Amino acid sequence: xxxxxxxxxxxxxxxxxxxxxxxxxxxSTVVMxxxxxxxxAVEMWPVHFTIVRPDLLVFAxxxxxxxxxxxxxxxxxxLDDLVSAAGGGPRLDRRVLYGSGFVSSLILxxxxxxxxxxxxxILLASERQPGVTGAAALGAVGLERVLDGLxxxxxxxxxxxxxxxxxxxxxxxxxxxGHGMGLAFILAFVAALVAARDPAAWGARARGWFALLGVSxxxxxxxxxxxxxxxxxxxxxxxxxxxxxASSILYWAITTFQxxxxxxxxxxxxxxxxxxxxxxxIGLSIQLPGGPAQAGTFQxxxxxxxxxxxxxxxxxxxxxxxxxTMFGLQLVGAIVMAVPGAWLLASARARRKAGPGTPGxxx
Length: 363
What we know:
mainly alpha
């Protein structure tokens, strides 16, 4: 009887946790959207929606293909090494690499409180590629995010140093936020460097730390630490780290170019430095846990950036249109790219089931 009661409680607890997560997400979205409206006059959908250069908007939409492709492909510099070390060939199946990247970009937008960040490690691990365990994939994605964070902070301070801005108090807030996020990313990068030097030693330490949980749990957690730390080995391999950083710089350059195109389509006057700083402020803002599609955090970041870096008259004319257009473009782009992403993953699974001798594209 007690077992039956316990079994009955599990689904209830799961539903309660799900409701709590979504409830917090919705509250966060409402609060952030209210801040965006009250502080920066930004709505989810503006009353007056005006595109002055439709050609630039079309160009920006086309840029989403190289944007998504470069973004999805950056992990190959980590994952190829894991596959090769496990004897699975020279590289990860490219259908898994790009398929997981395209699909996870949409899941990331749909899930609340940044929980979608777990989607790509889960997708990668589910494809059963040699060496690419859930822990290793989590470590690879985490390292990519840390490098992104460091680049975003460099873009923020570099862009702000090269552009004129009038609101000193608002600039001070942005600087403090940037310094705090930058410190967090630096500490995470140093931790990854330290862990990558000797993954086995850190695994042994983890087993000692968790010994009170029992031998089995301690061994499991120790193995998890080893696999995560092993995925950081790229930090000591210049042949892989250099192209990974270069591809990340290219990704953020494409992101900035796309944003500048949308700004031009909406009649905003943003120079290269201002566009770079705008991308950085939005990028840091959406790191905060929020609602699905980054609703709220995106609007606050975009509104804060434009109100600081854009001419007031230009912002009044096209700021709200820009925020809505950029927000919609990322969502529509993710939906469109998820279709070939799902096809690539299905193709990889079909080939795996058929056997290793079956030919296929992208292997």
